[in-house]
Amino acid sequence: MEVGQGINPELMQEHQRKIGEVIKEVGKVVIGQEHMVNRLLIGLFTQGHVLLEGVPGLAKTLTVNTLAEVLRLDFRRIQFTPDLLPADLIGTMIYNQQKGDFEVKKGPIFANLILADEVNRSPAKVQSALLESMQEKQVTIGETTFKLDKPFLVLATQNPVDQEGTYPLPEAQVDRFMLKVNVVYPSKEEELEVMRRMANMKFQSETKTILSKEDIFSIRNEINQVVISESLEKYIIELVFATRDPKAYGMPKEAQYIEFGASPRASINMNLAAKAVAFFNGRDYVLPEDIKEIASDVMNHRIILNYEAQADGINTRDIIKSLLQKVNINQ
Question: Exposed site from 74, 98, 103, 327, fewest CB < 10 Å?
Fold first, then answer.
């Protein structure tokens, strides 16, 4: 492990150990899905919201719930449905007959970890209410604005297969998510273990708390001190600009598929996420591999493809793979 002067070496090693224990504790309940757990922790430690996309039954809800228990954070699961109202999310004013006055009844958004299950099943009014809490870290009920407790993280899920009765998320809202993680099926060995465990009705796995809120804030501060060189900062900018003008980067084939490139939030979030990846790997400086590892999850929901891409079976991950192959790092 290499540690520079900016981060206390002993404290960093202690936090490294605790992060490993967090992953191990979650693994007592959730088989596999290490990639998803890693990305959820990156979001938590860099104050970035995470969008989980995958078919039902891949333990998305279970993973988030277990992570909240291991971190001893206040957790709320909100099932988004077509008849959900903004008041069901943020709260409302109710009349107190005894006092003869209106008082605030806070909604489930007032928690540390929010699981917005099937977020694309609710209409625009509900999604806009969620948007304020994600961006501003506050909620307005009546004429009063309430600051949300820290840490505050929205983890949303959506089903990519069943689109009937859904409301596609506006691009402005999708862009608020730091990462979009594609949750995949488990391997044969993992699914065998899941089957055996779930078929045993007596099976119970208790988890213990590993990190406190103070640890989370301390890790955030340490990640903020991770060093990224100027050449790698420029590399991130080149990757993002290549999505906006692919022809200028020698990618005429990809250019015919891209409708809109990634927004400036992609640059910001790739920088933050790369620092977190470096920290998780025991370094206080970023390597090109850290950027490449996180690039797909940062950009796959920020590149808008056209109908021609759909017709040819091209997805954003294909485009990002080409970007990483063709955009060079200028030392």
Answer: 98
